[in-house]
Amino acid sequence: MWLMTIIVGLVTLVLVTWLRDYVRRWRMPPGPFFWPIIGNLTLFGGQFYLTFIELAKKYGDVFSLKQGMTDVVVLNSLDAVREAFVKKGAEFAGRPTMLSGDIFTEGGKDIAFTDYSPTWKLHRKLFHTAIRGYALGDNLQSKVHESLEETIAEFSKMEGQAVNIEDHIYKLVYNVICSAAFGIRYDMDDKDFNTLIKVSKDGAEVFAQGLLADVYPSLGFLPTPGKAAVEKMTRSFLDIMQHHLDQHRETFDPSNLRDITDHMIKAQKDAEEEGIQDINSLTDTHLRQTISDIFGGGTDTTILTLRWAVLFLAAHPEIQEKVAAELDSVVGRDRLPELSDREATPYTEATIHEVMRMGTIAPLALPHTTTVDTTLRGYRIPKGTWIMPNLWALHYDPDTWGDPDVFRPERFLDESGKPIPKPPALMPFGAGRRACPGEAVGKADTFLLLGGLVQNFRFTIPEGEGPPDLAPDKKGGGVQNTPYPYKVVMTCRK
Ligand code: HEM
Predict the structure, then answer these.
(1) CB 128 near ligand 1, within 6 Å
(2) Residue span of the structural domain in which 330 resides
(3) What is the torsional sign of CA 41, 47, 52, 55?
(4) DSSP class per residue in 201-213
(5) How far apart are CA 357 and CA 355, in angstroms?
(6) Contact 484, 471 (CB under 8 A)
(7) CA gap 455, 328 in Å, rounded
């Protein structure tokens, strides 16, 4: 009898919750039928940004889904993304709390995963000044050139062989960031360097899988293997960050700031001496988290962009030769491309835009939340609703691009080969208050690295292999758009 009562009680609870969720949907954007408890969870599998494009055909460019029991609104058009993130910036600038993010950011003490708050603003400001001082302009250029020279020497030794260059690109990009963040440039075989890369790579994989409790926060107390894996990788990664922070503190000299880490220590000391007001937002935890964000934001994104770029160029040799010819005529062969060459190399810049459009490495950016009860297109959007901008839909919209599936840098140039104003639908860095603060670094880094590689090598698909698979690797899922592993043959141009 008591078992029957429990079952009836549970079923009633589920039905009432389900009914309540439907009532809550009142005047919210339309969307498909959702089940009790699981909602539309099945629609969030695989490359769900593609599923979302199909759903938009039925429900319109702004529609609602249930991720488990959480309301999600998906934005599938430029107009919708602009209205939410630009016109109503602050109202759509929140971040959801997810258990995996919370563990990794030690309770939301970073920039990327923390909610819209004064602490987030302070750290974004610090991030900007740190980046300006140590990871842009001549500073970035000299770091990239040093790392490139080593990679070019390595690639030259592998001339003519079919190679998967993924590991080399990892080391190339990590060395640039390590140099900006810690003032260290590692030998490619250095043990600490390789440990850092392995820990970050493993971490990104564990993190991309997410946790059940990210969808059902009330299950956060369960000691699942996934949670243990996130905790383990967080400890390994943050230990490395803290080790560098400690080392910098021992040799810190305020009159000689060496890198981003020194810059952060200085900000902390200034707050201690002057303000006190910001001190609770500038603990060591915050410092290592902001440095981690510079690592997390500045490595995987650039690595993925370069991996797509080399693949697209190997698959389109005629475009690669045009880039190489432009670099030859502007830069020559006696020096590496410099940031001052960017204006005179519109075809190379257009090619990078096209890589960022077709590669769309973050198809759904990062999830936002609404910070207040608000509206969009006349629909009601309650506070705390997850908002997913479908950047893939913007980048592959046939009405905007005409032939979105064709790799064609010329779409960013006029008839005389000059750059046209950037189309607003090209949004690889997102838009509004949460847009990527590393955009300038990402673009400059990609220009210098890709320019240096194409100036020195011709990348071709190994003989006997058919055309490369340009489809995204399904393992990337909805979070990251990763190319399938591939090999290229490098031929020295010099
Ligand atoms: C090709 C390079 C890059 C691409 C395509 C890219 C893309 C993005 C996107 C789509 C977002 C989410 C925007 C949103 O929430 O709406 C983001 C956020 C972020 N990116 Fe980047 N990014 C790149 C390079 C970088 C670099 C080089 C850094 C650091 C040096 C960086 C640091 C960050 C940070 C800290 C955030 C979180 C911002 C916040 O929540 O306020 N990114 N990026």
Answers:
(1) no
(2) 2-492
(3) negative
(4) HHHHHHHHH--HH
(5) 5
(6) yes
(7) 7
DSSP annotation of 370: -
Q: Decide: 437 and 111 in contact? Cβ < 8 Å.
A: yes
Residues linked to residue 490 through DSSP beta bridges, in sequence order? 459
pLDDT above 70 (res 170):
yes
Cα separation, 471 vs 466, whole angstroms? 14
Report the nearest atom of ligand 1 relative to the CA of 389.
16
**Mean of pLDDT values over 305-322:** 97
Which two three-digit tokens encode residue 344? 């005179």
| Residue 463: alpha-carbon gap to chain centroid | 33
The response to whether residue 351 sits with its C-beta less than 6 Å from ligand 1 reads no
436 is in an annotated binding site: yes
Specify the CATH number for the domain of residue 449. Answer: 1.10.630.10
Averaged confidence pLDDT in the chain:
90
CA of 442 to the centre of ligand 1 (A): 9
Distance CA 2, CA 396 (A): 57
Calpha distance 301→442 (Å, rounded)? 8
- Residue 89 tokens, joined: 């910036």
Report the length, in residues, of the chain. 494
Closest ligand 1 atom to residue 368 Cα is 15
Ligand 1 mean position, distance from CA 436 (Å)? 4
**pLDDT, tens digit, for every residue of 423-442?**
999 999 999 999 999 999 99
> Strands 386-389, 368-369: parallel, antiparallel or unpaired by DSSP?
antiparallel
* pLDDT for position 223: 84
Please choose, from the candidates 486, 490, 485, 487, the residue with its C-alpha nearest in 3D space to the C-alpha of residue 453: 490
Q: Which atom of ligand 1 is the closest one to the Cα of 110?
A: 35
- The residue type found at 185 is R
How large is the average pLDDT for residues 165-180? 91
Q: CA 176, CA 180: separation in Å to the nearest integer?
A: 6
Q: Is 227 in the pocket of ligand 1 (CB under 6 A)?
A: no
Q: Rounded to an integer, what distance in angstroms lies between the CA atom of residue 407 and that of residue 352?
A: 11
**Other beta carbons within 10 Å of 214:** 22
Encode 472-489 in three state secondary structure.
ECHHHCCCCCCECCCCEE
Query: Residue 419 corresponds to which tokens in the numbers above?
Result: 């750059």
Q: What is the pLDDT of residues 104-117, one digit of tens each?
A: 888 888 899 899 98
Integer Cα distance of 42 and 51 in angstroms? 11
Q: Which atom of ligand 1 is nearest to the CA of 305?
A: 1
Count of domains in the chain? 1
Q: From the centroid of its chain, how far is CA 166?
A: 17
**Which tens digit of pLDDT belongs to each residue from 297-308?**
889 999 999 999
173 lines ligand 1 (CB under 6 A): no
Distance of alpha carbon 473 from alpha carbon 205, whole angstroms: 13
